[in-house]
Amino acid sequence: MRYRFDAVFYYVRDLDRAVKFYENALGLKLKSRDFVARFEIDGVLFELIPGEPGGRGNARLCLAVDDIEAARRELEAKGVPASPAERKFNGLLATFRDPDGNEICLWQYA
């Protein structure tokens, strides 16, 4: 069996609201939409799927940034609160949530 990467996805309660958040707050470009909404981030397929969020997995969408404080300010200006940046082993980490409570990470490499 050969496994190939397919996608990272989040369940969302309201697909229209979620698409607007990812387009407006993060500036992602919608790649396609039918039953699910698809975005591509650096060649990785990220999907939003209608359903009930709340799985107990530990997956997160993590977005690399060059300046975590600038990214936090940009999100705050769009009404998206982000946590203070925390120093980690090899960089800085901050988090915020989409309208369904899915955690998204900002990561600045040291």
Describe the protein.
The protein has 110 residues and is of the alpha/beta class. It has a single domain (8-53, 60-109), classed as 2,3-Dihydroxybiphenyl 1,2-Dioxygenase, domain 1. It has two helices and eight strands; from the N terminus they run βαββββαβββ. It has helices at 15-24, 68-77; strands at 8-12, 30-33, 37-41, 44-50, 61-64, 86-88, 91-97, 103-109. β3 and β4 (44-50) form a beta hairpin. The model has no long low-confidence stretch (mean pLDDT 91).
Topology, element by element:
Blueprint: E1 8-12, H1 15-24, E2 30-33, E3 37-41, E4 44-50, E5 61-64, H2 68-77, E6 86-88, E7 91-97, E8 103-109
Parallel strand pairs: 1-4, 5-8
Antiparallel strand pairs: 2-3, 3-4, 6-7, 7-8
- Helical percentage: 10-25%
Radius of gyration: 14 Å
CATH topology label: 2,3-Dihydroxybiphenyl 1,2-Dioxygenase, domain 1
How many structural units, i.e. domains? 1
Mean pLDDT: 91
**Through-space gap between termini:** 37 Å
User: Oligomer, anyone?
Assistant: single chain
CATH class: Alpha Beta
Gross morphology is: globular
| CATH superfamily grouping | 2,3-Dihydroxybiphenyl 1,2-Dioxygenase, domain 1
* Largest sheet data: 4 strands, mixed
Low-confidence stretches: none
The assigned structural class equals alpha/beta
| CATH architecture field | Roll
How are the strands of the largest sheet arranged? 1-4-3-2
Provide the β-strand percentage band.
35-45%
